[in-house]
Amino acid sequence: MAWDTERTKRLLLDAATAEFSEHGLAGARVDRIAAAAGVNKERIYQYFGKKDDLFAAVLAARLRTSMDEVPMRGVGADAVGDYAGRLFDHHLADGVIPRLVFWEGLERGAATAADAARAEYHAQKVERFRELLPGVGREAAGELLLTIVSLVNAWPVLGHLDAFLVDGGPDRAARRRAVLVASATALAHDAIDAAASAA
Fold first, then answer.
1. Is 71 within 8 Å of 128 (Cβ atoms)?
2. Cβ atoms 191, 141 nearer than 8 A
3. Three-class SS string for 47-98?
């Protein structure tokens, strides 16, 4: 019987996603990933290399998937606000990306800059984001996208701070979403106006 390589890789990525999300890069254990996937741990090294490379593969896969699941669409400030709201919904429903991104920042930091595939992914994301913002340059678009991503990723991971700063309640997530959408929309209006004034 032939070995199903793609299925094995998928099982390993799924198991590694759960492990890295819960324990980070340093705390994750290759033995646990292999056991959860039902695969010999040598397959991890064979298909992905060392643990750090597996972490990078997990995050890259999740980011590519989220780009498909939360497409950027429309044009103008309201389209930017809509994107921020849908990204918030996505990350609230599945907090894996925010957790992985925070772990990456804490444990890999500047080393990620050497990842050519990630650099290309983010370059494409900024260029796609610029399509929402007529006339806005790359740097201003990148700053706005970084602001949105930072705000959206923070709440699922730093939600414990919410109780200290804001009154909770059953509608708390909806209220936070509304603030994010309004903030992203206002910042997008500012970026578009600044670009028009400079033209």
1. no
2. yes
3. HHCCHHHHHHHHHHHHHHHHHHHCCCCCCCHHHHHHHHHHHHHHHHHCCHHH
- pTM, two decimal places: 0.90
Alpha helix stretches (DSSP H) within the chain: 5-27, 30-37, 42-48, 51-69, 77-93, 96-107, 116-130, 138-157, 162-165, 172-198
Cα–Cα–Cα angle for 52, 126, 16, rounded to 5 degrees: 25
Please name the amino acid found at residue 98.
P
In this structure, the number of other CB atoms found within 10 A of the CB of residue 164 comes to 6
- Provide the token pair at 176: 């936070």
For 47-95, write each residue's pLDDT tens digit: 999 999 999 999 989 988 998 999 999 999 999 999 999 999 999 998 8
Q: Per-residue pLDDT tens for 135-187?
A: 999 999 999 999 999 999 998 898 888 888 988 788 999 999 999 999 999 99
